[in-house]
């Protein structure tokens, strides 16, 4: 499997100098939302022998239990996936006793991917989506156009 990417122009301001640079950016394979819990449940069911509805029920309960543990102040580690945590914030106070429960808020709930998951994903290969699909031909060199035509990359997705 390869992760598809596009090439985009960005302005890089480094040391006060504005410089236009080109960067790889991830191409989302969907318009909005990505894969859903139904997609995950379907694939887990295919791989495990459980029925899809059973997997969806378990996933719903896992989400509920993760929420419960986070509300109790625990972080939640799911081996092979990662850790869910809560970050708190409050206004600054002059004395410790002035930091009262009513002033404390959750600033964010965040996820840190399991290091092995991160390592596996970082080893993924990449494939550039043909430039001719999103740049006018006038911007491309003749070599790029020819190479993409030879590879059959000029057809629409």
UniProtKB/TrEMBL annotation:
Domain of life of the native organism: Bacteria
GO molecular function, one term: DNA binding
Keyword annotations: DNA-binding
Segments passing through the bilayer: none
Annotated Pfam families: HU-HIG
InterPro entries referenced in this protein's UniProt entry, alphabetically: HU-HIG, HU_DNA-bd_put, IHF-like_DNA-bd_dom_sf
Coiled-coil stretches noted in the UniProt entry, renumbered to this chain: none
Endpoints of the signal sequence: none
Protein name (Swiss-Prot/TrEMBL): HU family DNA-binding protein
Organism per entry: Jilunia laotingensis
